[in-house]
């Protein structure tokens, strides 16, 4: 049977599938040629990430397709319900990238608390002519240890981020309307484990108490962080959105930065992807990444391996 990994798949995934007798094609077929290609090559499994879309027309036009697989979490690019109604299996890999996203959040948090995002912009320009000036400009850094991290959305990534925070010596508070308590087990290199039980608290309490706030909620109709939420945060809070564009009101964020309510912020996701607002891209209070939360070699390996396991268990 043939698997088309149209947006690529890790070598670990290819190896596992080939070992089980599958042929894996990693050519990227243009969207408008995809239906023909799937039918001509008799593809049984279509694997995508976020670039390729799998809509009703493709599902209707490719009757031999058995599985649609999404390497990653969000399946906005696939007509999931329709595919399932038509008897296809639709699979994804929800847990594979949680720790990678958590580490990116901490990359931003450590960077922001020591002004690395600005320092990296300024050193190439002024590092030789104004070293002392820059040293003074970035002297008032803060440590994360001992501070409070507020996590909004305490699912897979929220909990993975909380574990990193606990390891870094932070206090963790969390809000999740669908979860009362979570048991977090921290594993250390020498086999020791430490368990933490975190009871979620109200959104308002998280917003009021946190020194740092990180968002890990799914996409939803309303903003989770809007003007009203910014207003009740501590002055000088640092906030990260590595969830989905549209859960945080970017216009309200810029206002909150201008008023001094938010000291600095990090965005990995944007309301307008792939063309974020220039006002955000040029804002010196922002640490920015182009939706690379899940983009690590380790996550890609786990995604490939997890997809292969699921495909083999469905098709044999
Ligand atoms: N930056 C990246 O590259 C990247 C990578 C993977 C996932 N993500 C995104 O991260 C987010 C979290 O993913 P996950 O795997 O942890 O999902 P998850 O489903 O495991 O957890 C989401 C949690 O949010 C809670 N929730 C829902 N609405 C809420 C609200 N209004 N306020 C507070 N909590 C709320 C849910 O109860 C759930 O526990 C998703 O938006 C996902 O798309 C981003």
Automatic annotation (TrEMBL):
PROSITE patterns: CNMP_BINDING_3, D_2_HYDROXYACID_DH_1, D_2_HYDROXYACID_DH_3. Transmembrane segments: none annotated. The keyword NAD applies. It comes from the Bacteria. Coiled coil: none annotated. It holds the Pfam family 2-Hacid_dh_C. This is D-2-hydroxyacid dehydrogenase.
């Amino acid at each position: 049977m043939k698997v088309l990994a149209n947006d690529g798949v890790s070598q670990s995934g290819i190896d596992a599938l080939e070992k089980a007798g599958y042929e894996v094609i990693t050519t990227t077929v243009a969207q408008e040629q995809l239906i023909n290609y799937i039918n001509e090559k008799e593809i049984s499994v279509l694997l995508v990430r976020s670039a390729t879309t799998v809509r009703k027309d493709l599902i209707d036009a490719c009757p031999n397709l058995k599985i649609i697989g999404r390497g990653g979490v969000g399946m906005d690019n696939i007509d999931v319900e329709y595919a399932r109604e038509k008897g296809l299996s639709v699979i994804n890999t929800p847990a594979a990238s949680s720790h990678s996203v958590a580490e990116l959040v901490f990359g931003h948090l450590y960077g922001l608390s020591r002004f690395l995002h600005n320092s990296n912009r300024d050193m190439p320009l002024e590092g030789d002519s104004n070293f002392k000036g820059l040293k003074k400009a970035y002297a008032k850094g803060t440590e994360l240890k001992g501070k409070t991290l507020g996590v909004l959305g305490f699912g897979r990534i929220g909990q993975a981020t909380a574990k990193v925070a606990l390891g870094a010596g932070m206090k963790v508070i969390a809000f999740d309307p669908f979860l009362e308590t979570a048991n977090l087990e921290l594993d250390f290199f020498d086999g020791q484990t430490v368990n933490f039980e975190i009871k979620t608290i109200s959104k308002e309490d998280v917003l009021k108490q946190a020194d740092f706030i990180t968002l890990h909620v799914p996409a939803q109709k309303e903003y989770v962080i809007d003007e009203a939420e910014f207003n009740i945060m501590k002055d000088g809070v640092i906030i990260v959105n590595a969830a989905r564009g549209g859960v945080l009101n970017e216009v309200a964020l810029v206002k909150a930065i201008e008023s001094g309510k938010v000291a600095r912020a990090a965005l990995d996701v944007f309301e307008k992807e792939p063309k974020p607002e220039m006002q955000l891209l040029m804002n010196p209070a922002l640490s920015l990444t182009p939706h690379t939360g899940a983009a690590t070699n380790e996550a890609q390996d786990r995604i490939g391996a997890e997809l292969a396991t699921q495909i083999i268990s469905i098709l044999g």
